[in-house]
Design goal:
Layout (H helix, E strand, L loop, with lengths): L10 H8 L3 H12 L3 H19 L4 H7 L5 H12 L3 H11 L1
Helix pairs in contact: 1-2, 4-5
Length: 98
């Protein structure tokens, strides 16, 4: 997951790598990490996206697509739900502090 976070992952693909059934993997992952595998993956991708927005010259649309989102609108909704502000606000904050 961390080595290839933008791959099209499924719980089944994680379970296959771990040599477990999908349900056992999901249960153990959730118990150990505190959230489901796909929720964790989504949070990890958004964290990486925020880092890209801060440290690269990429715009929100480019980061959205690189992060695996089909649209920048879907990315913006997920980003705002996770961080509490829009990704464009992060870019604007960076511009004013540069």
């Amino acid at each position: 997951m961390h080595a290839d976070p933008f791959r099209h992952w499924t719980v089944q693909s994680f379970a296959k790598i771990a040599g477990m059934s999908r349900s056992i993997f999901a249960e153990r992952f959730t118990r150990t990490v505190g959230e489901s595998p796909l929720r964790y993956l989504s949070r990890w991708r958004l964290t990486l996206a925020a880092d890209q927005l801060r440290s690269s010259g990429l715009n929100v649309t480019e980061v959205a697509y690189r992060s695996g989102y089909a649209s920048d609108a879907a990315f913006s909704r997920a980003f705002k739900a996770h961080f509490g502000y829009a990704p464009s606000e992060l870019k604007n904050r960076q511009a004013t502090h540069s």
